[in-house]
Design a protein that fits this description.
Elements lengths: L10 H24 L1 H23 L4 H21 L2 H22 L5 H21 L14 H27 L3 E3 L3 E5 H23 L6 H29 L14 H23 L5
Antiparallel strand pairs: 1-2
Helix pairs in contact: 1-2, 2-3, 2-5, 3-4, 3-5, 4-5, 5-9, 6-7, 6-8, 6-9, 7-8, 8-9
Length: about 290
């Protein structure tokens, strides 16, 4: 029997990805630039969609109820972070995750009630990190594109997007050994390494273009970009593990070429936590 022909480059998938990006990226960048209420509304819409997709995976019997519960818990924490200290939002998120799991169990909505509580933390922690990254150093919501909150959020976005795009391109063109075939059979080491290189270079390019002389050196910016790239692909693998656990291929079908919103932002969610940690280290003077 002859060996199967190697799979060619997935041009239709790339075309769908580019079309989706052409719509989503300007919207995201515009809201990040504006900050304040525009950014909060963007995060809130994303939370509602992600909660619905998570509910479809973990409790398909009661999607609307569990999705609404998850969204309400995360949005309550996010609003507390908006009107109060971000630390209050984090404390509220922890309590809300425990209460959501308990409520789902008492109501008998799903045999996987702990997954409802986990969904609150899984969606809520990156949402709070994304909100905090966009704030200025004194904790006030930043003005359009004017302060370090915008630069930190831009660093996260360019690193994540570069890692995602070049991991796809590198893996599709270079192919080679699989990264973790049992969890994600399409990902390769070549794509992984290309994604890491691209995320680090994108962060350094942003530093030279917009951030030179600010909080980080060029080397530190490249290191943060590299860490964000690792987190981006780690978040993608984590979501692949979760989807396998729930027995689904995609989290939804909202975005052509990507599946659901969770399939699109899984890496960003993990990277947001890493970049938020880097900002804390930079504020403490550890990272320069």
């Amino acid at each position: 029997m002859s060996a199967p022909k190697p799979k060619g480059f997935d041009w239709p998938n790339l075309r769908l990805r580019l079309l989706s990006a052409a719509v989503l990226i300007p919207l995201a960048v515009g809201c990040v630039w504006a900050g304040g209420w525009a950014y909060l509304i963007l995060l809130s819409l994303a939370v509602a969609l992600l909660a619905s997709e998570w509910a479809k995976m973990c409790s398909p019997e009661v999607v609307s109820r569990s999705g609404a519960l998850i969204a309400a818990c995360v949005l309550a924490a996010l609003l507390l972070a908006f009107d109060s200290r971000v630390s209050v939002g984090w404390a509220a998120l922890l309590v809300a995750a425990l209460l959501a799991a308990l409520a789902a169990r008492v109501a008998g909505w799903s045999p996987r009630s702990p997954d409802v509580g986990f969904g609150v933390a899984y969606i809520g922690a990156p949402a709070l990190a994304l909100w905090w990254l966009r704030l200025s150093l004194d904790g006030a919501s930043s003005q359009p594109g004017a302060d370090n909150g915008f630069w930190w959020t831009a660093l996260l976005l360019v690193s994540t997007w570069a890692a995602d795009v070049f991991a796809f391109l590198g893996g599709s063109l270079l192919k080679g050994p699989k990264l973790w075939p049992r969890i994600s059979p399409n990902k390769t080491w070549s794509g992984f390494l290309c994604g890491l290189a691209a995320s680090s270079l994108a962060a350094m390019a942003l530093w030279f273009w917009l951030w030179k002389g600010r909080e980080l050196s060029a080397g530190a910016a490249a290191a943060v970009g590299l860490a964000a790239g690792v987190a981006t692909m780690g978040g993608d693998l984590l979501e692949s593990m979760l989807k396998r656990r729930f027995g689904v291929k995609d989290s939804g079908d909202l975005i052509p070429g990507h599946g659901g919103l969770l399939d699109r932002v899984d890496g960003l969610m993990s990277a947001a936590l890493v970049v938020a940690g880097a900002r804390i280290l930079a504020q403490a003077g550890v990272l320069r």
